[in-house]
Amino acid sequence: MSFGAPYLTLPEFTYHKPKSLKEALELLNGFRDEAKVMAGGVGLIAFMKERLMMPNHVIDIKDIPELRSIEYKKGEGLKIGATVTMSELEKHDIVREKYVALHQAVKIAADPIIRNRATLVGNICEALPWVDGPIPLIAFNAELEIMSVDNVRRIPISEFIKGPVEISLEPNEMVAFIYLPDPAPEAKSLFMKFRTGSEYALATVAAYVLDSEKPRDVRLVYGAVSTKPVRAYEAEKVLLSCRDVGEAIILAAEKASKEIDVVSDLLASEDYRRHLVKLLTINVLRKIFEVS
């Protein structure tokens, strides 16, 4: 990731490597605005090289055992620690079998070298419009567990990301875990991404459908088209109310392309992104509903 700055070195900082979650939270509570937490470090190091972030203290949490865990409990769901990498998630059987949209997203996020280092929590906390991780997580109604020395709170990822590089996190807090509910056996999910000659996606979509014969729940979440992930609630209603699946998919795609907030930038115009939203919605829903 580069924004064109001339710096090749990092600014000066004090490096901390706590061995426990308690120690990490105490350090963060002491330094607050002067500190940044580092898990994989992919985004943070890039931002520091560009002088977009210049913390006086970097708290490296990679050696904290409980943050490296991926735990699944039937009936409860999946718990992902803050230092779990994209590659670890890609190889995990439960992620591949039950959380298909998430598996697809982490599998194509960046390149293998970055996936070996980058974490899903870091991907979320960057809050960049084009990152892939938050999109399937929101489709699964995932929540974050946020900790400080004297408090633990849970918040939906859809509420945590407030805008570009803007998140609901206090200076003395860190994201410790991601929680995904256990999907019903008949639930299906998929993730799709469109990009051309750039590391940045122009549009992404994650779809979650409970019961593809007669949908009882549908979630459509889009990324890279707006300043933060957006959900197409009206398009979901179309799918839930229309009897003919083929017709419902077309109508839902048209509704999604019109209802969500879409931006223009150097990579694509608003009209082109709305066109991509429509096409991606049709493609992802046809695969889920198994219609041509």
**What percentage of the residues does DSSP assign to strands (E)?**
15-25%
Strand ordering within the main sheet = 4-5-10-6-7
CATH architecture designation of the largest domain: 2-Layer Sandwich
Q: What is the third-level CATH name, the topology of the largest domain?
A: Uridine Diphospho-n-acetylenolpyruvylglucosamine Reductase, domain 3
Spans of at least 5 consecutive residues with low confidence:
none
Secondary structure tally: strands? 14
| N-end to C-end Cα span | 38 Å
The DSSP helix count reads: 12
The helix-and-strand class reads alpha+beta
Helix content: 25-40%
Describe the model.
This protein has 12 helices and 14 strands. The protein has 292 residues and is α+β, with helices and mostly antiparallel strands. It folds into 3 domains: 14-60, 2-Layer Sandwich (Uridine Diphospho-n-acetylenolpyruvylglucosamine Reductase, domain 2), CATH 3.30.43.10; 65-181, 2-Layer Sandwich (Uridine Diphospho-n-acetylenolpyruvylglucosamine Reductase, domain 3); 187-289, CO dehydrogenase flavoprotein, C-terminal domain (Enolase-like, domain 1, 2-Layer Sandwich). Strand 4 (70-73) and strand 5 form a beta hairpin. Helix 10 (233-241) packs antiparallel against helix 11 and helix 11 packs antiparallel against helix 12 (270-289). The chain is globular and about 60 Å long. The relative contact order is 0.11.
